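All the exercises in this workshop are built on plain-text protein records. There is nothing in a record beyond a sequence line and a structure line. A learned vocabulary of local backbone shapes supplies the integers on the structure line. The question running through the whole workshop is how a given chain folds. Here is such a record, shown just as it appears in the course material:

***
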Amino acid sequence: MEKVVLPVRVMRLMGVKLLVVTNAAGGLNDAYNVGDIMVIQDHIGLVSCVWIRVWLL
């Protein structure tokens, strides 16, 4: 987990106020087209689940 968040923490220490994160997972709605811009409002935090931590190790 530390390897994942380290770059974000370093950017914050360097004064970065805005981080744009992209997602290439796609969507389930047939009306979405390749290249459509979407806003990520939330995420599913699977890292906090005990079973996923065991699976990732």
In short: The chain has one domain: 2-56. The chain has a mean pLDDT of 74.
